[in-house]
Amino acid sequence: MASTSDIRNGLCIRYNNDIYKIIEFLHVKPGKGPAFVRTKMKSVTSGKVLDNTFSSGHKIEDVRVETHKFQFLYSDGEYYHFMNTEDYTQIQLRESALDSPQLMKEGEVVTVIINTEDNLPLSVEMPASVTLMVTATEPGVKGNTATNATKPATVETGASVNVPLFINEGDLIKIETEKGTYKERVKE
C-alpha cells in the first residue's frame, strides 16, 4: 500500500477494479482546508483518461511493475507486435495500450511496462521525442510569416503534424511524443 505522497508520473495503481497509470499529478495545499492531490490517470486496459482527486494521506494500492525494452516490429491493423531486445520473445498489444501509436515507426525501441503479478504487458512508453521524415507538405508561401505560421505535414508513419513554413518534403523533424507536436528540424 502506498499513500498520496508516493504519487508520481508513470506510477501504476489499482483503482475501481482496473489498473491506471498516472499521467499527470499536482499536489495542492490550499490556504484553507486539507491538502489534496489532483491526478489525471489513464486506464491501461481501455485507454480511458480519468481525472481524480485524492485527499492527502489517502491510501492507494500500487501495482508492482517491471520495465523492459522492446522493439516495434509491425502493425497488422488491430495489434502492434513487439520483440524483447534481450531474449527476442515477441508480444502483441492492442492500440489502446499505446500512448501515441501514430508516431511509432518500425524498428523503434520503446519501454513496455509489465505487471509482475501475471506478467501481462500494461502499457508502452515512447521515447520523449522521435525523428521522422516529412513525406508530404505544401510549400511555404513567402511573406506569410507575420506570426508563427504553421502548415500541416504528413510524416513517414502517416501521422499529421503542424510544422513551420520552412519545412519541406524530405526534411527530418523531431516530434515530441507526449503532445504530438513539432520540436525542431534535424540536420542529417
Describe the structure.
The protein has three domains: 61 residues, SH3 type barrels; 61 residues, Nucleic acid-binding proteins (OB fold (Dihydrolipoamide Acetyltransferase, E2P)); 58 residues, Beta Barrel (OB fold (Dihydrolipoamide Acetyltransferase, E2P)). It is mostly beta strands. Helices cover 0% and strands 54% of the residues. It has a six-stranded antiparallel β-sheet with strand order 1-6-2-3-4-5, with no helix packed on it.
Global Rg: 20 Å
Count of helical regions: 0
State the separation between the terminal residues, measured CA to CA: 49 Å
CATH class call of the largest domain = Mainly Beta
SSE-based structural type: mainly beta
In N-to-C order, the SSE pattern is: EEEEEEEEEEEEEEEE
Q: What is the helix fraction of residues, given as a range?
A: under 10%
Question: Major sheet, described briefly?
Answer: 6 strands, antiparallel
The number of E-state strands comes to 16
Counted up, domains total 3
Give the assembly state of these chains.
Answer: single chain
Mean pLDDT: 85
Please name the CATH topology of the largest domain: SH3 type barrels
User: What is the CATH architecture descriptor of the largest domain?
Assistant: Roll
- Proportion of beta-strand residues: over 45%
The low-confidence runs, each spanning 5 or more residues with pLDDT under 50, are: none
Subcellular location: Cytoplasm
Organism: Gaetbulibacter aquiaggeris
Main location: cytoplasm
Family: Belongs to the elongation factor P family.
